[in-house]
Specification:
Number of strands: 8
CATH superfamily: P-loop containing nucleotide triphosphate hydrolases
Order of helices and strands: EHEHHHEHEHEEEHHEH
Bound molecules: BIS(adenosine)-5'-pentaphosphate, magnesium ion, zinc ion
Helix content: 40-55%
Number of domains: 1
Number of helices: 9
CATH topology: Rossmann fold
Structural class: alpha/beta
Radius of gyration: 16 Å
Distance between the termini: 12 Å
CATH architecture: 3-Layer(aba) Sandwich
Length: about 210
């Protein structure tokens, strides 16, 4: 199963990826998580990425394409993978097609999770993430059973640096300009499935499951 989860910031890509990757036993490849890990480790990649992420801008294509190309050649992607947050521009999508051709793989599906903009702002400004394991919650919509601590590993929950409302608005604008065109791109190559991401989390998971196994 080679899957792309497409959708605006806050659509629920990370939340759904956690369930699907466990169920299908495939790696969750999130460029956002990879960049945040690099920032935390203080690597050169992290330093580069941070300046873009703090403004809500995209990290340059050459950097992003490079790390995904390397990741997809690792052996754990043999039986499939789920891409979350990549591709995000037409050049990234074209580069991905070239990588897939080179490694002899094809996409099973590209699923676009649709959610209206005001709901995205509510979701992102209330999001909490576990500092230790990355599990995602929402203060109101999806609270942790342990309130300010992670229900999975008991780690402390924090707000992502780019979830301040002004940065969220910039990310949404960047999405509209640079990422939304991917919807027509994947439609034109016959890979696109749209699903309603406004439903409760478990119902979105059920929709994804049905789209992926049809
Ligand atoms: P990234 O980490 O990918 O962030 P994003 O795309 O902005 O998406 P999010 O992680 O914010 O949203 P999500 O869809 O995962 O939603 P979640 O499940 O958490 O990228 C961060 C930055 O890295 C970028 O801005 C860029 O700078 C850089 N970057 C990354 N990839 C790049 C690339 N390819 N090229 C260049 N730069 C790149 O859910 C959100 C909230 O909603 C949570 O609180 C959750 O609990 C709640 N929620 C989820 N589903 C539901 C539901 N159904 N009902 C109610 N609440 C829900
Ligand atoms: Mg995410
Ligand atoms: Zn945790």
């Amino acid at each position: 199963m080679n899957i792309i989860l497409l959708g605006p910031p806050g659509a629920g890509k990370g939340t759904q990826a956690a369930y699907l990757c466990k169920e299908y036993a495939i790696p969750h490849i999130s460029t956002g998580d990879m960049f945040r890990a690099a920032v935390k480790a203080g690597t050169r990649l992290g330093l580069t990425a941070k300046s873009y992420m703090d403004r809500g801008d995209l990290v340059p294509d050459d950097v992003t394409i490079g790390i995904v190309g390397e990741r997809l050649s690792e052996p754990d992607t043999q039986n499939g993978f789920l891409l979350d947050g990549f591709p995000r521009t037409i050049p990234q999508a074209e580069a991905l097609q070239a990588v897939l051709l080179r490694i002899g793989k094809d996409l099973t599906a590209v699923v676009n999770i649709e959610v209206p903009e005001e709901e995205l702002v509510t979701r992102l400004t209330g999001r909490l993430v576990c500092m230790a394991c990355g599990a995602t919650y929402h203060r109101v919509l999806n609270p942790s059973p342990l309130r300010d601590f992670c229900g999975v590993c008991n780690g402390p929950l924090i707000t992502r640096a780019d979830d301040a409302e002004a940065t969220v608005r910039s990310r949404l604008e960047v999405y509209r300009k640079q990422t939304e065109p991917l919807i027509s791109y994947y439609q034109s190559i016959g890979k696109l499935e749209n699903i309603n991401g406004l439903l409760p989390i478990d119902e979105v998971t059920a929709l994804l499951r049905s789209v992926l196994t049809e």
